Amino acid sequence: MHEKQVQEFWSAHPCGDQLLGAPEGEAAEDYDAFFSRYDAGKYQLESHIPRCLDSLHVAGRRVLEIGLGQGAEAEQLIRRGATWTGVDLTETAVTRTRTRLTLRGLPFETLQQASVLDLPFSDGSFDVVFSHGVLHHVPDIRRAQQEIRRVLRPGGELVVMLYARWSLNYLVAIGLVRRAALLAAYPLAQLGLLSKPGTLLDAHLASARRIGLHRYLSMSTFIHANTDGPSNPYSRVYDIRRIREDFPDFTVRRAEKWFMHAPPLPVHGIGGERALGWHLWARLTPRAL
Q1: CA distances to 68, 166, 175, 217, 264 from 220, in Å
Q2: Residue 194's CB: how many other CB atoms inside 10 A?
Q3: What domains lie within the chain, and their CATH numbers?
Q4: For 106, which of 49, 101, 118, 120 could close a Cys bridge (C-beta 3.0–4.6 Å)?
């Protein structure tokens, strides 16, 4: 798996567009309305995010955000007083985040397209590196964490949200329900008894036919196609042990789970997220060199 494939996917599928579609036009008011709709939907669904950001106490601190999406967390961090810099692998995310911050008159230091594998900053540049839902899509995570360690000052902090391995979504929704559904649908599709062009199921069936059903259903393959769409090239799930393995230059200081999310199971808002939530927030500090 190469970074180029990840870049191509997220350039073609900007985070959030699958829920709301792209902005309806190119005018400033079109983007402003889009960002408002996006934020309303996002923070209604993931209401823990503002509280988690409050707990970071970023006021007056230099913050680097890696992976920008639609710029929602960038706005939240700046409004909380962070001296903010952002990078993203895709031009689309950089352009949209710049548009958002400009429209809303929010100050920032630097905003540019760059890879986490080669950050364009000096050693010890930041007090905090923040990355929400991004680093689990980086195949060369060891090199990425080395770069993050390099740009953090002594005593700095890395704050990440990673998909949780010990979650209802991974263990039950993806691991059991969706695999069973595809296993049942596959022979019907092969007989021509099931045809729903353009659906997620059709995309999964096409992938299963292309590489073989049993290979596709192995969790090492299936996980990639079941976090951010069937054509997503790479995803990884984490627990504390795996964080320690993949981020050896850091010490895990705190970790907690949020967001009960396990489609198609109707579980949102029922509680239990601290045990089986899909989003694992971890706060890490650099090990001494």
Answers
A1: 27, 15, 11, 8, 21
A2: 15
A3: 3-166+237-286 (3.40.50.150), 182-226 (no CATH)
A4: 101
* Tokens standing for residue 245: 């393995």
Which class for 121: exposed (0-12), middle (13-18), buried (19 or more C-beta within 10 A)? middle
Average pLDDT for 105-113: 98
List the structure tokens of 122. Answer: 């000096």
Question: CA angle 185-188-194, nearest 5°?
Answer: 85
pLDDT at 25 over 80: no
pTM: 0.94
Q: 171: burial class by Cβ within 10 Å (0-12, 13-18, 19+)?
A: middle
The Cα 6–Cα 164 span in angstroms is 20
At residue 26 the predicted structure's pLDDT band, cuts being 50, 70 and 90, is: low
Q: Which residues contact 216 (CB under 8 A, 6 or more apart)?
A: 182, 204, 207, 208, 222, 225
Structure tokens at 22: 């792209």
Q: Residue 108 corresponds to which tokens in the numbers above?
A: 């920032």
> What residue spans of 55-160 are helical by DSSP H?
72-79, 91-103, 141-151
Are the beta carbons of 104 and 78 closer than 8 angstroms?
no
**Which residues, listed in sequence order, are joined to residue 256 by a DSSP beta bridge?**
281
Alpha-carbon span 11 to 90, nearest angstrom: 6
Query: Encoding tokens for residue 47?
Result: 């209401």
Cα distance between residue 214 and residue 77, in whole Å = 44
Tokens matching residue 64: 């680097």
Q: CA angle, 12 as apex, 84 and 208 as ends, to 5°?
A: 125
